[in-house]
Write a structure and sequence with these properties.
By secondary structure, this protein is of the alpha+beta class. 22% of the residues lie in helices and 41% in strands. It folds into two domains: 56 residues, Nuclear Transport Factor 2, Chain: A (Roll), CATH 3.10.450.360; 69 residues, Nuclear Transport Factor 2, Chain: A (Roll), CATH 3.10.450.
Length: 151
């Protein structure tokens, strides 16, 4: 009975503390080695096991990046937040021609994605209000690929 109560208290404390970043398995060497080859100058690297992949957050120069790797060490992509002014002219043009250009839509956030095959994409989050938000995905030519609602 005492053991059951103790186990209940331990598991209950995990749920009561909210979000817990627990690392239950170590990051495979093949993953960290692949990361070091791609980002040899990365600083302040933190790893997270996402069950189906591994995510590294790190600093490179003055930017904070996130990179994802498969359990086999394959790079799945990287991202970083950028200023709206840093969007390429083609993406700005594509946004200006969309139904999300200008009032009442406002740009809230811009992310730059680097994907395998030397592909670069941009996510522009626009919002009318705190409840009406869209994530707009553009390719590097300024073509909108998706417009997903977000919470």
């Amino acid at each position: 009975m005492k053991k059951s109560l103790l186990l209940l208290l331990i598991f209950g404390s995990f749920f009561a503390t909210g979000h817990v970043d627990a690392q239950f398995r170590s990051i495979p060497g093949i993953v960290t080695d692949s990361f070091k080859v791609r980002y040899p100058n990365a600083k302040s690297v933190n790893w997270l096991d996402n069950i189906s992949n591994f995510k590294a957050t790190f600093m490179l120069d003055t930017s904070k990046y996130t990179a994802k790797y498969s359990s086999k060490g394959e790079w799945l992509g990287s991202s970083k937040r950028i200023n709206q002014d840093a969007l390429p002219a083609s993406v700005k043009d594509g946004l200006s021609k969309s139904m999300y250009a200008g009032a009442p839509w406002q740009i809230r956030m811009v992310m730059m994605y680097y994907l395998p095959g030397n592909v670069t994409q941009y996510v522009v989050q626009v919002a009318k209000s705190d409840f009406q938000k869209k994530n707009l995905l553009f390719n590097s030519d300024g073509v909108m690929l998706k417009d997903n609602s977000t919470l």
